[in-house]
Structures are given as C-alpha cells and as structure tokens.
Amino acid sequence: MAVYTHLGAEDLAQLIAHYDVGRLLSFKGIAEGVSNSNWLLETTQGRFILTMYERRIETDDLPFFLGLLDHLSAANCPVPRTIHDCDGAAYRMVDGKAVALIEFLPGLSPSTPTEAQARSVGAALGQMHRAAQDYPNTRNSTLEPQDTLEILDQCGTDALAGIDPALPDILPIGARIVADWPEHLPGSIIHSDLFPDNVLMLGDEVTGMIDFYFAATGAMAYDLAVTHAAWCFDDTGEACDPALGAALIAGYESLRPLSDEERAALPLLAQGACLRFIASRAQDWLETPEDALVRRKDPMDFLRRLEFYRANGQSAFA
Ligand SMILES: Nc1ncnc2c1ncn2[C@@H]1O[C@H](COP(=O)(O)OP(=O)(O)O)[C@@H](O)[C@H]1O
Ligand SMILES: N[C@@H](CCOP(=O)(O)O)C(=O)O
Which ranges carry the Aminoglycoside phosphotransferase domain (predicted)? Predict the structure, then answer.
C-alpha cells in the first residue's frame, strides 16, 4: 500500500483549484511504493501524479528534490517536471503535510529487465549525471557508508540475528568497506535508488526516472554501482546476470565514459551500495509492525549481492 492518508474528492478538487490544470474528473490511489502517498489524477487537461510526503523526507529538502526534477526535465532527461501552483510554488501544505503535483509519465517498470532495457537505463543514468553537473543546489546524503554502518550498529547484533543468523556478519564487513571507501571520485547529483520500480519504460525506451527522494551530491560511479546491484540480479540476489551488467555499463559509457579510477572502484562501491540497502531494509524490518500493510523487504537479498561482489571483484563488472 502507498496511500497513508485519506483524501476525498472534495479535498482533491479544492487542492487542484490552486493549479492551472483544469477540473478534476477522477482520481485513484496508487498501490505501488512504500514511502509516500500517491494518487493518479485525471483532469480536463490530462493526467497528473499527486504525491503527499509521509516518511523519511524533510520538507526543507523539497526545493532541492523538486527543483532537480525541473532542472533535469528542462535538459530533456526522462524525468517528470513539477507542476507549480498559481502562485509559482512547487509544493503546498495540506493538513500539515507537503504535497506536490507532478507530470504523469507513461510506461511500466520492468520486473525482469532485458539487456536492451539495462543498456537504456545505463544511458539514461549517464545523461542524468551529465545534466545534473550544473544544477546549482547541493544536498549531503544521510546514507553514506558510515551512516549506514551506524544504522546497523544501532539495530544491534541480537536483533540482526533475529532477522537471519548470518546477518550480523555484515558488521565487520561494513567496517572494512567504510575504512577503504574511496574519496574524491568525480561527482554530480546522483539518484541513489534507481531500482527497476523507479524507472518507467515503454519497450526498450526509458520514459521516466522517478522517486528522486534519496538524490544527493555524490560520486557518479557509486550511482552506477547502486543501479548494477538493483538491475543485474534475480530478486533474492542469488544469481547475477553478467550480460545485464555489461549492457548497463556500456549504456552508461555511451553517454559518460568511466575513468580508470572509477572502474577500479566499482567492486567496493557496489559493496557500499549493498551495505546501504541492507541497513535501511534491516531498520524497516525491525520497525515495521508484523501486521502493517507494507511488504517488508528482505535485507538478506543484499547480503547475497554483497558476497557476490566480494567474491568476484573486478570480474563482476567485466
Ligand atoms: N511521474 C509519474 N508518472 C507515472 N507514474 C508515476 C509517477 N510518479 C510515481 N508514479 C507511480 O507511483 C508509484 C509510486 O511512486 P514512488 O515515487 O516510487 O513512491 P515511493 O516513494 O512511495 O516509493 C510508482 O511505482 C509509479 O507507478
Ligand atoms: N529501493 C529500496 C527501497 C526504497 O523504497 P522506494 O519505494 O522509495 O524506492 C530497496 O529496495 O530497499
């Protein structure tokens, strides 16, 4: 489920009246997603996505996230633009919560990506990194390897072992990743969470990259490593498909070639990416009540990926 707040027809019609988007004809809540409430709105002028920010997002960060969408879409990246209200504001407050109206983009998120799709998503990521170079705003990530290790430390060995007896192994492994973490790789604004469910596609074409709410200033090669970990394995992280990885990287390099230093760092960056998703998933696992209507994601899916990157080193990216 991803509609945490009830908004009725009258609430939505009243809200829409603040925008130049015509009259509300119909709406429905969107089931996908876990962090925010989303509705698909149909008005006399077309379709729009309404997002209400519920968890993990600071309202103070919204100008950064929403301005980034406008910056990237103006540079022809496949990213939805935000619809500003009649006063020019990118977001409004409803009952104390921030809401934004966002362009609807067509497309479906692939559940079993093909090589052609992995290549396209790599190219879209490279295009985004280049276009974001001159975005004037910055944001520090709150999920650097050190932060994610602290999250796991706070979960504690016993609680981690309660999720899976092998999970506490991540603590010493994570400490080594943090100690070896490369600094000074070329940076831009990075998406940081470009999983298949955050990409919309029509056939092999990327029609939308969405959910930029972990975007931050960071190393571009780290973003590529996150995308590799998210796209090139089966769901449980047991099997990596090297052809998907090769296609993803080739697509990326068609827009932005990697330096030797970035290429050499990929195995460690990918381990750091896995550490980040193990941490947020473990934290959610422990904090989400058993009877909540949100499907908990298994941190072990990313411990398996991490083991793969440790065992295969550079050949994971051959
Ligand atoms: N701009 C958009 N165009 C079309 N569909 C969208 C758009 N933004 C979000 N969606 C739909 O809403 C779902 C949840 O959005 P998302 O931003 O990923 O939410 P969450 O942050 O809760 O994960 C997506 O899977 C997609 O189906
Ligand atoms: N992609 C992350 C979860 C982040 O959730 P999102 O719905 O906001 O993309 C994971 O798989 O752990």
Answer: 27-258
